[in-house]
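Build the 3D complex.
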Amino acid sequence: MNYQTPLAKVKGLGSAKAGTGHFWMQRITAITLIPLSLWMVAFTEQLLNASHQEMVAWLSGPIDIVLALAWVIAAFYHASLGLQVVIEDYVHSEWIKISSIWLMKLTFLFFAIAAIVAIFRISMIG
Amino acid sequence: MIKHKRPLSPHLMIYRLPLTGIVSITHRMTGVVLAMGLIVYVASFFIILQGNEAFLELQSFLDYTIIRIGIWFFVYALFFHLVHGMRHLIWDVGTGFDKDDMDRNAIIELALSFVLTLICY
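Done.
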């Protein structure tokens, strides 16, 4: 039995079968970011005080590079999920909302890729 | 649009936000600030990549008092978002919704993120 009205059907309303995905990924990245934020603080401290040589060595150790990459993936994913909610809450025009969410997500994807490439290249000079 | 001035129920612009409300909107604002800050971090990776000279130039830029103050606000924003985010995780479990808990936890959050920032300093 389908209780959907014809109008709702033609507008494409209804469940997309992905309702909890956003919620879950936001929580999972949040929990991951609790320890990784301390990496972020430690990196900031290095950025302010270390010499260039120390900085490169700090970033390219075998564990440090994994932490750096994990931080990039978790932080950019978490940020894009969060900004999506902010846009959804405050932008009321449907087409501006959808296109700005996509523009924001692609921008964050682009910067995450750039960060990953940069981290790999830093590890090659170290 | 509105023809008659009818009384409205109190909404955001009318009543004074409780502490929990202020903390809640601060969580969102710090989140946006932190997201923007990520772009600066990517830029710093590329400056490290450029070599010693560019790195020293970056460090002398970060040395300006106004920039330093900005960095410390950023670190405070990070810790606040982290601590309040942990409260969201506690809420997800289904506890901590009593009025007294809300007020007490808000004060704990503000103080704890300040202490954590101070430890970093």
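Chain A has a mean pLDDT of 92.
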